[in-house]
Amino acid sequence: MAESKPGQNWERSKLDDLLKGEKEPSKEIDWINKGISLEALGRPEEAIACYERALELNPRFAEAWHSKGAALGTLGRPQEAVACFNRALELNPQYAQAWHNKGVALAASGRPAEALNCYENALELNPRYAQAWINKGAALAASGRPQEAMACYDKALELNPRYADAWGHKGIALRALGRPEEAIECYDRSLRLNPRYAQAWYNKGLALGALGKPEQEIDCYDRALELNPRYAQAWYNKGLALGALGKPVQEIDCLKKFVELTPPQYASHVIQAEEIIRQLSKQI
Questions:
Q1: Sign of torsion over alpha carbons 88, 94, 95, 99
Q2: Rounded to whole angstroms, how far apart are CA atoms 166 and 183?
Q3: Superfamily per CATH, domain 130-212
Q4: What is d(CA 209, CA 180) in angstroms, rounded to the nearest whole number?
């Protein structure tokens, strides 16, 4: 998860003027703030254009490079985002947020070891950076080190006991360590703080499945899918749970939905799901 950029505490009237187009920004910080506001409105492409205008005025403006990188990450362009974060860090090596968000972009590029190094740099600069502790834990978990990951989540929870994301990630680490009951307790803590946390509902379903409770497992996947109907993994695992209950027709329907929603980079999973569908279709 990338974090927000500087400049949120901006004069509201000036912001309204710029978004209405009544005033053309004259300073790089004004372009930055207009970009941040456009991102908040779900318009990252326009935000990037603002950051580029800021950089035309001042190519050595580290915050503009950082903001552009974060917007590129939002658009699913992590390699370009990394290049922007690198420019920000060349200008300001003490920029903890840029180290953190570079780690997020590297993780999205499938480079967890490099991401881990970035999170450690961010935490060296700011040991109270709770989101960096969470993402460091996620990088460790992706490297097969769930015990170390859990220690990072605990550190984030020391800093903020009401951090739903930290409870959710701690649950993932506990499940990886073969402790599904404790994992469920963490997911429940997370969901009390944020009932709309689709990933926590999904992961609670996985833990219930590990305990041999397919009906409750399916209930959790259904809650996740109410919040995010395009949650491909939830469709897949809901299908498998329905299969465990002897409901092959419903299982096939869920697996077809998974195949429809899964992006191309997960082609091997799609092939596996299609094979299950073929085998079940022969049995019906």
A1: positive
A2: 12
A3: Tetratricopeptide repeat domain (1.25.40.10)
A4: 9
Q: Are 122 and 97 in contact (CB under 8 A)?
A: yes
Residue 6 pLDDT: 45
Closest CA to 131 of 140, 143, 123, 121: 123
> Tokens standing for 168?
């959710």
Picking from 159, 41, 262, 92, the residue whose alpha carbon sits closest to that of residue 136 is: 159
Task: Count the neighbouring beta carbons within 10 Å of the beta carbon of residue 249.
Answer: 10
**pLDDT attached to residue 222:** 98
Residue 109: partners with Cβ closer than 8 Å, 6 or more residues away: 78, 79, 82
CB 118 within 8 A of CB 91: no
Q: Where are the domains of the chain?
A: 10-74+82-89, 130-212, 229-284
Q: Are 220 and 205 in contact (CB under 8 A)?
A: yes
Q: What CATH architecture does domain 10-74+82-89 belong to?
A: Alpha Horseshoe (1.25)
Q: Report the alpha-carbon distance of residue 206 to residue 21 in Å, rounded.
A: 49
Express each pLDDT in 176-231 by its tens digit.
999 999 999 999 999 999 999 999 999 999 999 999 999 999 999 999 999 999 99
Tracing tokens 């005025």 back to the chain, one arrives at 57
Which residues, including other chains, have CB under 8 Å from residue 265's CB and lie 6 or more apart? none
pLDDT tens by residue, 8-19: 444 444 555 555
pLDDT at 3: 59
